[in-house]
Amino acid sequence: MSETVAKGPARQVLAAQCTLGEGPVWDAARQCLWFVDIKRHQVHSFAPHSGAHEVHVLHDQVGWVLPAHGGKLLAGLKDGLYRFDPATDEARKLADVPGEPDGNRLNDACTDPAGRVWFGSMDDAESAPSGRFYCAHRNVVAAQGPEAVCITNGPAVSPDGRRIYFTDTLARRIMVADLDGEGRCGAPRLFADTAQHFPEAYPDGPVCDAQGCVWTGLWNGWGAARYSPDGELLEKVELPVANVTKLAFGGPDLTQAFVTTARKGLDAAALAAQPQAGDLFMFEVGVPGAPLALAEVWDGDAVC
User: Fold this and answer.
1) Cα(207)–Cα(257) distance, integer angstroms
2) Which residues contact 142 (CB under 8 A, 6 or more apart)?
3) What are the φ and ψ backbone dihedral angles of 65, each rounded to 5 degrees?
4) Among candidates 234, 215, 220, which has minimal Cα distance to 174?
5) pTM of the predicted model, to two decimals?
6) Which contacts (CB < 8 Å, 24+ apart) does range 175-179 have?
């Protein structure tokens, strides 16, 4: 396995100026990137081949969107899961998330190869250990994975669907668990203690590439890091902004790594020194990402 797969430096591709840019995900059918600005209730789409950029505003904080069947998106908002149609801006609520405190919101998500949706919740004030992880499958939202986490990120599922990664951001730990064919995860164990290499940074959103390596954004870390499936640090890609949130692999061959960033938490001096904070960046990679399964959506008991 090559230890360095990034090709060239990261460059800005969109002056998004997000307060809290998060959740980038590639839409293969549309050949565009979706991402959110959580604090501004925005869903963004960006087509790198044309430069087209659209912004949709939802009614509440939106932690993530995932491409779904029928050209729709599955969206995780503060008050539950929604089917969102970007062509009409219609958002239809599909499910509540049971047991969530009023002060929590949803934060980050992925699909596994079967289309199950994995996501986390967190304390919106970023102080209470009230967050945990869930799986949504066939009209059922069930808690799975670590609990009592203040800021969750991920999950991320390995390309073969046999491992799932959970990030506890404030604890600076990425956990891993085995995942069976029925979508049940085993007991989480430590995958990487990111503080060993990045003591000033916090691991943010994780994603796996085609080799099963795990990339993580580094909040207050000025870059993104790649870990081997054994938890060994392989490389870091530097960015010109401090708060790096998450990567998504896109482009026709999934060899373009798109990176969201944030302005949140930066004072006036820091913003002056980082004028591109909150923008979207991209760098090329020699190892592509893994194709994304479309998210399940449902109408009553019917999955579509």
Assistant:
1) 11
2) 134, 135, 136
3) -135, 150
4) 215
5) 0.96
6) 175/146, 176/231, 177/145, 179/112
pLDDT of amino acid 1: 41
Please, what are the domains in the chain?
6-303 (2.120.10.30)
pLDDT in tens, 152-209: 999 999 999 999 999 999 999 999 999 998 999 999 999 999 999 999 999 999 999 9
Residue 266 host element (H or E): none
Q: Quick one: DSSP state of residue 272?
A: H
Averaged pLDDT of the chain: 96
Q: Is 267 a catalytic residue?
A: no
Catalytic pick among 124, 204, 209, 279: 204
pLDDT, average across residues 274-282: 98
State yes or no: pLDDT of 2 exceeds 60: no
Q: Is the pLDDT of residue 57 over 70?
A: yes
Residue type at position 145: G
**CA proximity to 204, closest of 24, 10, 8:** 24
Q: What count of other Cβ atoms lies within 10 Å of the Cβ of residue 92?
A: 12
Peptide bond into 155 cis (omega under 30): yes
Confidence of residue 138 (pLDDT cuts 50, 70, 90): confident
Question: Other CB atoms closer than 10 Å to residue 30's CB: what's the count?
Answer: 13
CB atoms within 10 A of CB 70: 9
